[in-house]
Amino acid sequence: MVSRLQKTVFVCLLIALMIPALVVGQGYNQQLGQNRNIDWTRHVIKCTGIGAPDPNLPMAAQRATALRVAKIDAMRNALEVVKGVQLTSETTVENSMMVSDQIRTTVDGAIRGAQVIDTRYMSSGDVEVDIEVPFTGIMMDALLPEDFGGGVLATGGQLLCPCCGQPWPQGKPVPAGVTLIQSGGGGGAVDNLYTGLIIDARGLGVTPAMAPKVLDEDGDDVYSAKFISRDYAVDIGMTGYEKDINRARMNERVTDNPLVVQAVRASGPSKSDVVISSVDALKIHNAASNLNFLKHCKVMFVLD
């Protein structure tokens, strides 16, 4: 007979195995139909394809054919999802693919390289295949513009070189990829060493995008390509998305001590950008002037 202790151990092990699966299933998932999904927390597109066996083929070849058809169907679904993704608040990935053969070829190649994460063989002979396509890495590199950097952190003081801390020569152009800092001015001191930024935009109807902006109440950029290392944006995406503020705080992108600010409204044609108060904007730039959380894309949006 199984002892009570053995039952307890078994239940504990079962729960321990279930927790990672539950965590993976959490995050900000945008469902686009039964077989199409975007995981904006992990920056992957997940799609399912279905293939039916060809009754005109020998029995031994039918399963392989159904599997191949299922993969093609999954990739077709992934391409449709990618086309509809907001690149910025003003444009979609499909818009970029239409104006550039190179972007279209790169996106197609990224989808063809999709990872098969599950295969199911049905009693009817049909085959279902689940694939994942990351839109960081190769795809993000093709889609993001080259002109990153050049922004000035608005802390109200003298413009300084971010490398040596010396005053930036007046009239000297700011190289691409460089973000000047300002010496202390009207922003006040920052007591906490923030490790990232969380924008709480729940209730505003914000639409996720690959390259969103954070604006102040005057419409000036607080967080955008001007303040970001392009290499980081390509590798991990410009922002992460979550539905739960506590999970956002624990996300490795922004831990251990993120600065949390409240968005006041959505902005842009697709409502992918967010507006924050000028006070919070100044607080963010003062914190970022001594830390690199903006440059390193340590930013998350919390949405409904």
How does this structure look, described?
The chain has 304 residues and is of the alpha/beta class. Helix content is 32%, strand content 21%. A seven-stranded mixed beta sheet has the order 10-9-13-12-8-14-11. Strand 9 (214-215) and strand 10 form a beta hairpin.
Provide tags for this entry.
single chain; 304 residues; 7-stranded mixed beta sheet; 5-stranded antiparallel beta sheet; 8 helices
Strand order of the largest sheet: 10-9-13-12-8-14-11
Low-confidence stretches: 11-25, 185-189
Rg calc: 23 Å
Q: What amount of the residues lies in strands?
A: 15-25%
Mean pLDDT: 87
Binned, the helix content reads: 25-40%
H/E order of the elements?
A: HEEEHHHEEHEEEEEHEHEEHE
- Name the overall outline: elongated
Concise structural overview:
32% of the residues lie in helices and 21% in strands. The chain is an alpha/beta fold and 304 residues long.
